Structure formats: C-alpha cells, structure tokens
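Propose amino acids for all 115 sites.
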C-alpha cells in the first residue's frame, strides 16, 4: 500500500485533493471473499485485491503524509441487486447509514488533501 500511495499520489501538489473508495473488510461478504477460498473462487476474487478497515485505511494515509478529511463506511447497494429492487434498497440504505450497522457497509470512502 505504501508503494501505491507513493506512486499514485506523487504528482499531487501540496493542498491537492484526492477521493476514492475501497472495499470494507468489516462487511461480511467482503470478509468471506478474503478469508474463505470457495467464496473467493465463486465470486471471482483475485489474490492481489485487498480490503481495509476504516482505522487502518485512515492510518495508512496519515502515515504517508496526507490529511484525511473523510474516511467512513458507505453503500449497501450490492452490484447484483436486480434493477427493480434498487429503489427499495436505496431507501433501506438511507436508514442503515444512520445506524450502527453503517460499520458493515460494503465500501469505505476516503478523501483528503496532500499536506
């Protein structure tokens, strides 16, 4: 990850902003994909892909010299959700993201600036 941060953000000027998302290891499906071989094979997980926990991701960026303004779990909409169910899932998602269950959302959004 350190190599990725160094190479990806090497051209970012001081004060420059970044934003992206990563899989959330606290999500049960993400955890299973990373820790149970048959689940990883079934979901076509590759060995070079990784996932993070919120505190771990924040620490990686801060240790690399970045100011993290946002690092939080988000998004319960699964990529395989049938189109007709998306509006309902989004309504449930709005409730879940305001509850303690937010910790197990599928992704982590991280944003900030280069010091």
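Proposal:
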């Amino acid at each position: 990850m350190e190599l990725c941060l160094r190479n990806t953000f090497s051209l970012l000027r001081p004060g420059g902003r970044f934003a992206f998302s990563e899989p959330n290891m606290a999500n049960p499906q993400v955890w299973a994909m990373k820790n149970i071989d048959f689940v990883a094979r079934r979901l076509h997980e590759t060995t070079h892909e990784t996932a993070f926990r919120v505190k771990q991701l924040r620490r990686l960026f801060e240790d690399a010299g970045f100011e993290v303004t946002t690092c939080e779990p988000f998004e319960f909409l699964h990529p395989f959700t049938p189109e007709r169910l998306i509006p309902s899932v989004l309504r449930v998602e709005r409730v879940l993201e305001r509850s303690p269950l937010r910790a197990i959302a599928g992704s982590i959004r991280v944003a900030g600036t280069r010091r």
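The mean pLDDT is 92. The radius of gyration is 16 Å.
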